[in-house]
């Protein structure tokens, strides 16, 4: 029985200083008794206007990561979540796993990432062919495609929104996201995947089964779902899409 003030598990969530949506989405999705504690990695230059700018942004994330991890560990969390998908995917499957393993060793804790969570979700729903929506520039789109293909999926199409800064990702309008998802829905995929943790797509992905023919997975929803299940928490809810409702 849960009582007032019960803490079932604590998560330390590493996010870039430019990310607006992760804390909002996690607060909306986490069940009672799950708390998350954000450690922000400072990014001086949020521009993503070019491929070179996007790489600089990720390099700055690398530089600020250890400080963010140090700070969030003061909350004595039970799990670390790396809430920046490109930070993992740009390293490739093995490089991303090595990165995660290194963080787990430093923290002495299990680590969850968005890409890992999406792959687990795709396996759970039995999808093998995917369409991917990103906020990225072409080079990051190519790295995203490579990551999912190396993970065993057929990527039918990647739709990049070409956001010009990390903060602009959160300003993409619902109409633009819906239009992109409708276009992706024509590619013959078993599932659609939205990556980029600052994209405001959790609610739209949850509603998409009403107006698309294809299951749609938001990375932030998948991350919360996977972290909950890996933490032994099986709470379900009916308003957050099929992952948290059915699995």
What does this structure look like?
It is a single chain. With 247 residues, this protein is α/β, with parallel strands linked by helices. Helices cover 45% and strands 17% of the residues. It has helices spanning 21-29, 51-72, 85-89, 92-107, 114-125, 138-150, 174-184, 202-207, 219-230, 242-246; strands at residues 9-16, 34-41, 79-82, 111-113, 129-134, 154-160, 191-194, 216-218. The chain has a four-stranded parallel sheet, with helices on both faces. The two termini are 22 Å apart.
Short précis:
The protein has 247 residues and is α/β, with parallel strands linked by helices. It is built from ten helices and eight strands.
Mind describing the biggest β-sheet?
A: 4 strands, parallel
Based on CA atoms alone, the radius of gyration comes out at 17 Å
Order of helices and strands: EHEHEHHEHEHEHEHEHH
Number of helices: 10
Q: What is the residue-mean pLDDT, rounded to a whole number?
A: 94
Q: Regions with pLDDT < 50 over 5+ consecutive residues?
A: none
Helical amount: 40-55%
Order the strands across the largest sheet as they lie in space: 2-1-3-4
N- to C-terminal distance: 22 Å
Q: What overall geometry do the principal axes of the alpha carbons give?
A: globular
- By DSSP, the count of extended strands is 8
- What structural class do you assign from the helix and strand content? alpha/beta
* Residue fraction in strands: 15-25%
């Amino acid at each position: 029985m849960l009582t007032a003030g019960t803490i079932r598990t604590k998560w330390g969530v590493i996010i870039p200083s430019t990310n607006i949506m992760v804390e909002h989405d996690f607060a909306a999705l986490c069940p009672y008794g799950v708390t998350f504690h954000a450690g922000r990695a400072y990014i001086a230059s949020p521009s993503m206007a070019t491929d070179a700018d996007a790489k600089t942004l990720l390099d700055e994330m690398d530089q600020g990561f250890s400080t963010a991890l140090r700070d969030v560990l003061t909350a004595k969390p039970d799990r670390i979540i790396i809430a920046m998908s490109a930070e993992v995917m740009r390293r490739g499957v093995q490089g991303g796993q090595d990165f995660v393993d290194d963080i787990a060793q430093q923290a002495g804790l299990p680590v969850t990432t968005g890409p890992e969570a999406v792959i687990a979700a795709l396996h759970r729903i039995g999808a093998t062919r995917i369409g991917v929506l990103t906020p990225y520039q072409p080079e990051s789109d190519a790295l995203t495609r490579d990551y999912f293909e190396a993970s065993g999926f057929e990527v039918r199409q990647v739709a990049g929104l070409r956001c010009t800064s990390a903060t602009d990702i959160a300003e993409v309008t619902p109409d633009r996201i819906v239009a992109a998802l409708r276009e992706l829905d024509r590619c013959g995929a078993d599932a659609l995947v939205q990556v980029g943790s600052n994209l405001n797509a959790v609610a739209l992905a949850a509603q998409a089964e009403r107006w698309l023919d294809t299951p749609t997975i938001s990375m932030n929803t998948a991350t919360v779902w996977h972290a909950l299940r890996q933490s032994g928490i099986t709470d379900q809810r009916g308003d957050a899409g099929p992952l948290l409702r059915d699995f």
